[in-house]
Specification:
- This protein has one domain.
- It has 205 residues and is of the alpha+beta class.
- The two termini are 29 Å apart.
- It binds iron/sulfur cluster (2 copies).
């Protein structure tokens, strides 16, 4: 359950990469497709890795069964814990088509009692993200509207990713033990799902 922070803030990203050094980044098949089609990035083990469910927690989609274990799919973390796409100057090398989860920080979305989407400050980011300034003013309207648009896509993409994982787990999971086969299966599904989202007008580049 999301606990509302209700902070009043101004935000300007300083592009110092603090958040990209601190958190592991779970990705969906559609995040990977964006990297492939807009960035020309090869989706393989140089950019994605499996996070063991016994160590990592996530409740936004089911764990992926590969061989005899359960995992979550994430961007590769370098030895110092930073994201594989974080450049030495602190900037994101895939900024225009980065995973949707990256586009929210230092904010979060939540669902109101009437089903409407709300945007608030991520409580973990308070005191951690130097771009947040508590100035007593509401969150900038442009930020709120942009994040709401991303939220509609994000929620739909998470549903499609859950369906994809369930299909994989039921058909292949325990029989296949290599990440490459899972990635190919996921990207094939992503191409089909992208067309559905484009048709609905909620595809995010
Ligand atoms: S920590 Fe805040 S200011 Fe720094 S890159 Fe992340 S969002 Fe931007
Ligand atoms: S994809 Fe970009 S924004 Fe997301 S964690 Fe990696 S470097 Fe940071």
């Amino acid at each position: 359950m999301y606990r509302k922070v209700g902070m009043l803030v101004k935000f300007r990203c300083l592009c110092d990469g603090q958040c990209c050094k601190k958190y592991w980044i779970p990705v969906t098949h559609l995040d990977l497709l964006r990297l492939k089609i807009y960035g020309g990035i090869e989706v393989d083990e140089s950019i994605v890795e499996l996070k063991d469910r016994e160590i990592y927690n996530l409740d936004i989609y089911p764990p992926i069964v590969i061989g005899d274990k359960e995992y979550f799919l994430a961007l590769v973390s370098k030895d110092d814990g930073s994201c594989v796409f974080l450049r030495d100057d602190g900037k994101c090398s895939v900024h225009e088509y980065k995973p949707l989860v990256c586009r929210f920080y230092p904010f979060v979305y939540y669902v109101k009692d009437d089903g409407e989407i709300g945007i608030d400050v991520n409580e973990k980011a308070v005191g951690e993200c130097p771009g947040l300034v508590m100035d007593g003013e509401p969150i900038d309207r442009d930020i709120v509207e942009n994040l709401k648009k991303i939220t509609y896509a994000r929620r739909e993409e998470l549903k499609l990713w859950s369906e994809t994982i369930n299909e994989w787990n039921n058909s292949y999971g325990s029989k296949v033990s290599d990440l490459g086969t899972f990635l190919k299966f996921s990207l094939d599904k992503a191409e089909k799902h992208m067309k559905e989202l484009v048709k609905k007008g909620i595809w995010i580049k």
